[in-house]
């Protein structure tokens, strides 16, 4: 294959702004109980080292990238499959303890648990007779 054909077949690298637009929004389930909230995001193919979970003020940001590795001696001339980027952000309530967030990744599902402040949790009130 000549150089001109190869240049025609390869795409130019997207800019950072364009990459942000190309990110997929992972589907997320959100559960709330007395202790806090739990988010479960489907991010198939994302490994732990390509996953980024961050809290900034009251915003939770989840980002991940699927890396498709080529065999060592191979060069991709054309591919329908590209690396996939996931990105999603959430605004968090002040009733949550953002410094105690727990996150785990298992079989492509990211699970993030954010506990409520103790004073925000329901508590049982004892009733005395008499």
Topology-level CATH name = Immunoglobulin-like
Placed side by side, the strands forming the largest sheet appear as 1-2-7-6
Low-confidence stretches: 1-19
Q: Which outline best applies?
A: elongated
Q: Mean pLDDT, rounded to whole units?
A: 81
Relative strand content: 35-45%
Report the CATH C-level class: Mainly Beta
- Helix amount: 10-25%
Care to count the β-strands? Answer: 7
- Report the order of strands and helices: HHEEEEEEE
Count of alpha/pi helices: 2
Family: Belongs to the small heat shock protein (HSP20) family.
Organism: Thiohalocapsa halophila
InterPro entries: A-crystallin/Hsp20_dom, HSP20-like_chaperone, Small_HSP
Protein name: Heat-shock protein
Q: What is this entry, summarized?
A:
Helix content is 11%, strand content 39%. It is mostly beta strands and 130 residues long.
Set down the secondary structure blueprint:
Layout: H1 3-9, H2 16-22, E1 28-32, E2 36-42, E3 46-56, E4 59-66, E5 84-91, E6 102-106, E7 109-115
